[in-house]
Amino acid sequence: MNFHLLATGPRPVAPFSHAVEADGWVLLTGQMPTDPAAPDAPLPHGIEAQTKRVMQNLEVVLHGVGLDLSHVLQCRAYLTDFERDYAGFNETYKSFFPADRLPARTTIGVTALAVGALVEIDCVAKRP
Which domain holds residue 42? Predict the structure, then answer.
């Protein structure tokens, strides 16, 4: 088993590894819409901008372990205002994947997320 805490990854907001790997399966911790280059900067405004930043942060972690979004099999997304943000979240999220290669996904409405985020996404990837 490998525990990956990446120097180039987003600053952790809790005690966790960016990714944990076992037998070719790579589990990525949920990412927040923080900027790895400026972790104390204000969060992007709105669900679309925050979703984009979260997806970019997932890409940073995936690249840090030698993978990319094409290796993602499943995602879980958490939204703090599900009814308001679901459509905008979906539009931004799907732009990161080819239409014929969308991962399995669950989206859950929650009462709050760390750092006051509107969205958090974790995922499972598999090495080829």
Answer: 2-126
Q: Is 106 exposed, middle or buried (0-12, 13-18, 19+ CB in 10 A)?
A: exposed
- Per the structure, how many domains does the chain have? 1
**CATH code where residue 11 lies:** 3.30.1330.40
Place of tokens 């900027």: 35
Query: What's the maximum distance between 2 C-alpha atoms anywhere in the chain?
Result: 40
pTM score, two decimals?
0.95
Q: How many CB atoms lie within 10 A of CB 55?
A: 22
* Residue 2, Cβ density class (10 Å: 0-12 exposed, 13-18 middle, ≥19 buried): exposed
Residues paired with 124 in a beta bridge: 27, 74
Distance CA 119, CA 38 (A): 18
Q: Residues 12-70: pLDDT tens digits?
A: 888 899 999 999 999 999 999 999 999 899 999 999 999 999 999 999 999 999 999 99
